[in-house]
Amino acid sequence: MLKGILAISGQTGLFKLVSNSKSGFIVESLIDKKRMPAHATSKISALEDIAIFTEEGDVQLQEVFKNIKEKENGGQAISHKASGNELKAYMQEILPNYDEDRVYVSDMKKLFQWYNILQENDMLNEVETEEEETAGEE
C-alpha cells in the first residue's frame, strides 16, 4: 500500500513516485495531481519506512493505518487540525501503547493528515491485499 508513496520535507501532503530523473525524482501530488521534481537534496521519506514508537518497540505506519481503518470502518480519521488533546486521545484508541514521550502532537498531525489523504485517494484498500499475499507465501 505504501510502496512509492513519499513525504517531502517542506511540501504539504503526500506524493507518488512517478520516475527517476538525473537530479532526483519526478513525483505527483496526491492532493492536486500536479507533477514536480523532487531533488536529491530534499528530505524525502518513504511512508513504507516510517514507524511509530511504542513502549515495546516500533510499529510500522501501515499497521497504524490499518488500525485507523478498522476503527473508522474505512472512513476518515480525526482531522489533523483537531486540538492536541483530541489527537492524543484518538492516538490512544488506535495505538494504546504508543510512546507518549517520543511521539509528538506534530507527528500525530502528519499521521492523520496522511491517512486522510490516502483514504480520499482510495489507496487504503491495498493494506489487506498485501498482508494476505504475504501470509499466503509463508
The average pLDDT value, as a whole number, equals 90
| Number of alpha- plus pi-helical segments | 4
Helix content: 25-40%
User: The CATH topology of the largest domain, please?
Assistant: Arc Repressor Mutant, subunit A
Sheet with the most strands? 5 strands, antiparallel
Number of strands: 7
| Rg over C-alpha atoms, rounded to the nearest angstrom | 15 Å
Number of domains: 2
- How much strand? 15-25%
Helix and strand composition category: alpha+beta
CATH class placement of the largest domain:
Mainly Alpha
> From the coordinates shown, what is the CATH architecture of the largest domain?
Orthogonal Bundle
Straight-line N-to-C gap: 19 Å
How are the strands ordered across the major sheet? 4-3-2-1-5
- Low-confidence stretches at least 5 residues in length (pLDDT < 50)? 129-138
Helix-strand topology string = EEEEEEEHHHH
| Coarse shape | globular
